[in-house]
Amino acid sequence: MPAKxxxxxxxxxxxxxxxxxxxxxxxxxxxxxxxxRRCLDTHALDPGARTAPQVLASSQLRERRSAMERLRNxxxxxxxxxxxxxxxxxxxxxLTGPDGVIVDSRLHDGTRDDFxxxxxxxxxxxxxxCEGTNGIGTCVVERAPVIICQQDHFRxxxxxxxxxxxxxxxxxxxxxxxxxxxxxxxxxxRQSQFHxxxxxxxxxxxxxxxxxxxxxxxxxxLQLQEQGxxxxxxxxxxxxxxxxxxxxxxNQSALNRLGVARDAIVGTRVDRWFAQTLDALFAQAHRTxxxxxxIRTHAGEALLAMVRAPLRAARRVTPVANPxxxxxxxxxxxxxxxxxxxxxxxxxxxxxxxxxxxxxxSGKEVFARAVHAAxxxxxxxxxxxxxxxxPESLIESELFGYVGGxxxxxxxxxxxxxxxxxxxxxxxxxxxxxxxxAMQTRLLRVLEERRVSPLGGGEPVPLDIRVLSATHRxxxxxxxxxHFREDLFYRLSGLQVxxxxxxxxxxxxxxxxxxxxxxxxxxxxxxxxxxxxxLCAYAWPGNVRQMRSVIRTLVALSERxxxxxxxxxxxxxxxxxxxxxxxxxxxxxxxxxxxxxxxVLRAALDACQGQVSAAARKLGVSRNTLxxxxxxxxxxxx
Length: 638
Hints:
By secondary structure, the protein is of the alpha/beta class. 42% of the residues lie in helices and 15% in strands.
């Protein structure tokens, strides 16, 4: 963009933001005008600045993607379909986290460089405080679909872009992600984006519905639709409820259909809202599991309904306390993990908080869910909060909830926080070591008083919860650095248990077979003994999460119904060759520091698409030094 045009745009932005100009058509939209004022007054941004977007380090991006793995798995097919529907190679389809950081992109090869120059690549932070008014960041703030067309951007450097974005919400109402379509074409108009906006909105609703269905796959799911429409539409209303009929969650379509706020329906019996008994709903699910039938709300509205039974066997039994505190059989066949599980179950029955330690991806949440499922609270909710995946500005409202209108951008009906959602069950605080320090003080008070007050006022509500927390960090080190409260540490760590990394577990073969059964379901895909042995021998730096991803990929690519050694990824086969060579030549295994250096070098090369010069700059070493290290570790590529 020429310097004169950039300067003119910057002056225009400042005039509008300061209230001196309101006649320009594009800024009569209050969403854009309000965003410009936030950029100037709150974020103190310079519209003429030429700085590039901030980009996460590759390790941080990997962690971000891992935290969003379930959502990404649901979203990828939808984003691919959206890209095909757009039929425009000049548009990029992007998925971001709730903080505006891009985690995935769908780009056509011929336009990849254009979008990268514009800063639209995985790891880039497009939040409004960083990049000003833009499709992604402004959508995050507004919690609503937006079109930001060229001159609508606050920063002059972004005016070649046109961005159309829509939010994706979780079953409990918190924002999960943003789907964005961006274009660098100069001949794009706001009117031309209305069709794109409709497609982006549709894609966001499809992701929400699929995520809702998968999130509550082990609970009853009631789907509602207007008569005349077909069930399966993206606008379907969804309610999840347990074996006792207690409503666990409702999506926005369901809330709109029933004319009720989320806090008013969650925790109530589902048949309270319909002219049909709970037993009739269960009977209808067994009688016609894949068909819809007429149902009326208590307000008299005629709808179509379908009930999906849980994928697990329905219990419909109210759990009772175990006075003898008998320890159930461990769901893990690894002896060390089984011992830790037994210890955890014994103290959890006495309301002792448990701190679970383990590497990223080692299965800490799976362990926590198993402890909950084996307890007298198995019939209550299990509510997980990843303290590292939620922006600091949002974690307080996510944990404690808020009353309607308590802050800018708050929903008028308010929102129940994770603490209240876990009432009667278990709260799992994942990555507790990353919780902002200011939040730790309030959490400590709530855990000690067993009462919670939502943001914005309201009477304190008594809480009946058990607490499990987990971290991959050294909390003693965090305490010494004054990043973690010592008193909260003692409050959470009544018992510390360790989930061993996958490389140290003795049940890898059982785990492989379990994951294979979960992934392939009814497809009948098997794995040869040699391939299973190779998977067992691998070190798995990404732990169970990496193994699950590898097995899912192997199943998806399998054409013969049998996975063999030749089907394994290069990394696993190369590791096999190195291991065999070491055995034959009696070479000792690579020292931990050398293994870590090899991993860093390989990651830098991968991040730079094999370009040694770029990798050297990324690592801060000379090209000759990097060549020498690559030759030493056998990483030079032909």
